[in-house]
Write a structure and sequence with these properties.
CAT_RNA-bd_dom_sf, elongated, Transcriptional antiterminator, BglG family, PRD, alpha+beta, PTS-regulatory domain, PRD, 3 domains, single chain, four-stranded antiparallel sheet, repeat
């Protein structure tokens, strides 16, 4: 195995048998070496192979700029996350999370505090990812020697959610705001407080995550069984009236027209969450 490119003393690239580029890391693996030299395989600590060419390019740029220790911290967090969740985490997390942690530590050392405006919502909507984010802070403290504020646990949680949905951070922030706004509409329409540990609430938030993703990406959904929609609209008239308010909000904020299929599922989820609340009251 020969070196294709030396990024720094600790990072090189090579070509595998299929002529695909691999990123290889190891302390001092490139010291005194150049392209075309053989790789000392005993020094290999980590191998990356990102199928997305654009993501691979970003990873190479990042690894050339930051210390190896931050890649190791990020790797520890990602492995912990994959062990403690059954959700698929996209490889883009290696770029986004490593980059975020490096600059979060750098900002902290410069005395620059960034407040997380979505911390409360992140705790509510993504509790599993937030717990992983909290553990990530302890990993950073152990490896880097810096105790970052709780806000960073929320930021790390959103990076994990991004990697599950394979979305960029600004998109994830917009999705979270969308969920928050719709929940407020339903809450104030019925004058209720949510039971956030209930299955109905979990299902509703999960539906809103993917609903928001589609709305923000302007992906239209085709209508299917119109007779079912008419039945739901009649039988769940209170929930449908609330769904119409959500529809007006989406039209105003995102210039998207909801289909009967959208309104069908929205009405059913609203009905379930309100019915569950009223049953328990």
């Amino acid at each position: 195995m020969q070196i294709k490119q030396v990024l720094n003393n600790n990072v090189i690239t090579v070509l595998d048998e299929q002529d695909q580029e691999l990123v290889i890391m190891g302390r001092g693996i490139a010291f005194g070496r150049k392209a075309g030299d053989d790789v000392d395989e005993s020094q290999i600590e980590k191998t990356f192979k990102l199928d997305d060419k654009e993501m691979n390019k970003r990873l190479l740029e990042l690894l050339a700029e930051i210390p190896l220790s931050f890649v190791e911290v990020s790797e520890d967090i990602i492995q912990y996350a994959r062990k403690h969740t059954n959700k698929k985490i996209h490889d883009n997390i290696y770029v986004s999370l490593t980059d975020h942690i490096y600059y979060a530590v750098e900002r902290f050392q410069q005395g620059i505090a960034i407040k997380n405006a979505l911390l409360w919502e992140t705790k509510r909507f993504y509790p599993e990812e937030y717990r992983i984010g909290q553990h990530a802070l302890s990993i950073i403290a152990e490896k880097v020697g810096i105790i970052l504020p709780e806000d960073e646990a929320g930021f790390i949680a959103l990076h994990l959610v991004n990697a599950q949905m394979n979305e960029d951070m600004p998109v994830m922030i917009n999705i979270t705001k969308f969920i928050q706004d719709v929940l407020h509409i339903v809450k104030f329409h019925f004058g209720i407080e949510y039971e956030e540990d209930s299955l109905a609430y979990y299902r509703f938030v999960t539906h809103l995550k993917f609903f928001a993703q589609r709305i923000l990406n302007h992906r239209t959904q085709k209508d299917s069984d119109n007779s079912l929609f008419e039945m739901v609209k009649t039988n769940y008239s209170r929930a449908y009236a609330c769904a119409q308010k959500v529809q007006s909000y989406i039209q105003k904020m995102y210039q998207e027209q909801l289909t009967d299929e959208d309104m069908l599922y929205l009405t059913i989820h609203i009905h379930r969450i309100v019915q569950k609340k009223e049953e328990n009251s």
